[in-house]
Each structure stands twice: as structure tokens, then as C-alpha cells.
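Re: your question from the hallway

Yes, I did run it. Sequences:
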Amino acid sequence: MFLSEIKIFNKLSRLKTSYIKVGILMSLLAYWGVILVGTFVTFN
Amino acid sequence: MEVFLPIAQVFVNPIEILLLSAIVGVLSGLFGVGGGFLMTPFLIFLGIPPAYAVANEANNILATSVSGSTTYYLKNILDYKMGFIIVIGGAIGTTIGIYTFTYFKDIGKIDTVISLAYMYILAIIGTLMLVESLREIDQAKRNVLAKKKAHVHYWIHGLPLRMRFPKSKLYESIFTPIFIGFIVGFIAAIMGIGGAFILVPAMIYIIKMPTKLVPGTSLFVTIFVSIIVTFLHSFNYGSIDLLLVLMLVIGSIIGVQVGQKIGERIDSSGLRALLAILLLIVGIAIAYDTFFANEILNNVQSTKTKDLNFFSEFIIDFSKEMPFFYGLFTIMFAIILGVAAAFMRKFVSNLKIKLLIKAK
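Structure:
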């Protein structure tokens, strides 16, 4: 019982970390999207 | 309280400039990065036209790198031979960079080019720094040691005209350091930055210099590149404002000292992610100014020459009538400030040691 609780806790922790990583990646993609689209629009 | 900058023709608050340059100096000292790529955008936000911000920041970098390099010279941890070869490339890159600057200035697009260049450079550095620091934090959590390859050879190491560099214990083609110097010089001329963010990784990973020789040699190269940039900007456009340079130098030299002291006491690797986020924010602020604001509203106020005080009039006349000597003077001014700061630092540390010995 105790071991399975630890396993669930670890899985949740890993899930949280991967959500944060995906969040940062999406923010960076959005950031670069704004910059590139802005440059494109400005020069056209 | 506002001060009029006679060359840049704007009113600025000296406390704001001193505080900002001190903050950027603290970040430089804490993270071991040059502050140019942060300070120039801040100067632009304060209302200083981009072309003037670039030139004056280059002069500030000259003073701070002289100050840092004097310290490394006193410790004899510099590779002069490698430094001079990189400077050759740097001189060619700077000259071509100034021609490019003149071209964009003539067609009236220089402010947009500088803003775009900063936006992209901050976005690239911020992204790389954020990814790297998150990886470091992740590895530290998992207790994983990053495996590094002992020695990797790129095509660049097979280039002809090889030369021995005894201090670095290297046998390398001269084209590699010349090419790196060229890129650094070109960027420095257009953006008014020292280029350490390119030079340091290139020296370690491409040239393969011993890490202990890298900071001193990088500063040594930065001195020569910023001397050429300062002189060419001053001679061609008379854009160096001694009053602004003085404020920048005082703020950044004090800030760097404080940053280095803080860095000795705390582990800055976790804070690197915060610096990366700051760079990305400054990048997006520049993007906003460039894309959405039709004109950056500078608080430029027209001031007639007759309203200026003696010092301001003297600087304007000196820069217009004797551009060559004004260029030399700005260089000497920055070098003297830098050397004075280095010796003052040594004096203070000696005094501290003496006081500690007396106390015991």
C-alpha cells in the first residue's frame, strides 16, 4: 500500500514537471511567433 | 532633476542612468555576462536615440573592459598572441560594420535596424539561456552529471596557415580566430556591444582555449574592438557624449563590483533562468516599440545653443571642429576611467587585507 502511494506521488510529480516544460515551450513558441510575424508584417 | 546631454540633444535624469547602469553592472558581475545587450535597450527606453545609445555604450564597454583587463594583466592570465589575431578579424569586421551602419543611416532606417537586431539577439540569447538553465535545474534534481566529449574536431580545425599559440598550448589555423573576430567586430559596430556572448563560447568550444585564459583574452579583444567602434562612431558622426559616458561608467563599474561580491556568496545558476526571462521581456518591449508604436516618442526638447552652459558648448564645438582629436579624447577618457577603477579596486582590497591583519 505504502509503495503504491509513493509511485502515484512520483507519477504526479513527473506529470507536473512535464506540464511546466510544455508550458515553457509553448510560451517560447508564441514569443518567437509574435517576433517573426511582427517582422514580416512590418516589412510588408 | 534633469541634465541636458549636449551631443545626444536630450534631457535625462542622471539618477535614472546611474541606477540602471549599476543594476546592469550587478547583473554583469553576478552572471559573468557583458551588460551591453541590456544597457543599450534601456538607454533607448530612456529616450536616447538608438544611434547615440549604441556609440555611448561602446565607449562605456571600453572603460569597463579596460578595468577588467587590467586586473587579468596584473594576474598574467591573458593570451596576447591569440588576442591580437582575433583583433585583426575584429578590425575588419568593425570597419565593414561601420560602413553598414552608415548605409542604413543614410537611408534613414538605422533606428529600425538597431531595434530589430536587439530584439532578435535578446530573443536568441534569452531562449538559449532559459533552455540551458532549465536543463541544469532538471539535471541537478535528478543528480545527473552531464557527459562532455573530451575533444571534438570540426572542419574549422583543418584550415590552412596554422600557427602555434604557446600560452594556450594550441596549434591552430589563424583563419578561425580571424573569422570569430570578424563576426564580433561587425556586431559590435552595429549594436554597440562587447560581443563576449559570442567570443567566450567560441574561444572555449571552437578554438579550444584553456578556460582560465578566456575571460582575460576576451576582455583584451573587447578593448581593441570597442576602441575602433568608439573612434569610428565619434569621427564619423560625433555621437559620443562625454557626460553620458561618465554616468554610465561610474554606475557600471560600481555595479560590477557589487555583482561579483554577490556572486561569490550565492549560487547564481538558479537565477540564470530569471535573467533569461528578463532578456525575453526586454526583447518583447523592443518588439512592441518597433511593431506597434509608429514613432518612439523621445522626450527630445529643442535647446538653442545659446541656452547651453560652457561645458556643453565646449563638447559640441570640440566634436564638430576637431572630430579626429575628439575621437582620440573619448578613447583616452574611457581608458583613464577604466585604469583608475582597476587601481582603486586593488587599493581597496589591499586596505581591507591590512585592516583584517591589524584586527587579528
